[in-house]
Design brief:
With 229 residues, the protein is of the alpha/beta class. It has one domain: Vaccinia Virus protein VP39 (Rossmann fold). It is built from eight helices and seven strands. The protein has helices spanning 35-38, 43-46, 52-67, 100-113, 127-136, 141-151, 161-168, 182-191, and strands at residues 15-18, 29-32, 70-72, 86-92, 114-125, 195-196, 215-221. It has a seven-stranded mixed beta sheet. Strand 4 (86-92), helix 4 and strand 5 (114-125) form a beta-alpha-beta unit. It starts with 14 loop residues before the first strand and ends in an 8-residue tail after the last strand.
């Protein structure tokens, strides 16, 4: 368990970016379990054995960790911070990679980790928008392919052994496990005890807003204590 005081930002607050990938934000602590991040200390030794796209993966994480603090953490597990310690949590394109039951448990954990009045900013692909694009498009094989691939629930071909092994050991980011529209995402958050905010004035309010046509972007707040939840 980490001491929150060691990770307070310039605002004197604890902001967490959960399932961050190599996308770092100023003043946030980033949590991720990527194999690139785990093996980052060995990248110079491994460089001679890697393919070009693998080297670029390591470089992306090296750049990210130079810009902001990172913690290696399996984000399907409880966050490594005490209850009532975080002021804000960003979960961008993370929950759709979890089975629905696991996502429910993770969101309840976020509720516990947040201080009273703390906020949770969730961004997921918008199933309704993807379905509408498919329905509105002229029927064709390419349209069907685009729709199925946009869901990222499966692949055209069987993944390599390495990819399947990464998924088996808990590698995040390979496939989607559950899809949401706005109504189902709101229900997930409200069931965990959150209240929805009408406007997003959070520290991550501008994160990935260029993709809003294809994603659900919701801010929720913890308005009651989690004791006995």
């Amino acid at each position: 368990m980490n001491n929150p005081k060691q990770f307070l930002n310039s605002k004197g607050q604890l902001w967490l970016n959960v399932g961050a990938g190599c996308y770092s934000l100023p003043n946030f602590v980033h949590l991720d379990n990527s194999l690139f991040l785990q093996l980052l200390p060995l990248r110079r030794f491994m460089g001679h054995f890697l393919k070009e796209h693998q080297r670029k993966g390591f470089e992306s994480y090296a750049d990210a960790t130079n810009r902001a603090p990172y913690l290696v953490h399996n984000c399907e597990k409880p966050l490594p911070f005490p209850e009532d310690s975080a002021d804000h949590i960003l979960a961008s394109h993370f929950l759709e990679h979890l089975y629905k039951g696991d996502a429910e448990r993770v969101v309840r954990g976020f509720f516990t980790n947040l201080k009273l009045g703390g906020t949770l900013h969730v961004i997921v692909p918008d199933l309704a928008a993807l379905v509408k694009r498919y329905i509105d498009s002229p029927p064709s094989d390419s349209c069907n392919t685009l729709f199925v691939e946009s869901l990222i629930l499966t692949k055209r071909t069987k993944p390599s052994f390495l990819m399947r092994w990464r998924e088996f050991v808990g590698g995040f980011g390979l496939l989607h496990r559950w899809m949401y529209d706005r109504a189902s995402l709101v229900a997930l958050l409200e069931q965990a005890g959150f209240e929805l905010e009408e406007t997003n004035d959070s520290p991550s309010r501008q994160w990935r807003d260029e993709d809003n046509a294809w994603q659900v972007n919701v801010l929720a707040r913890k308005t009651r204590q989690s004791h006995g939840y």
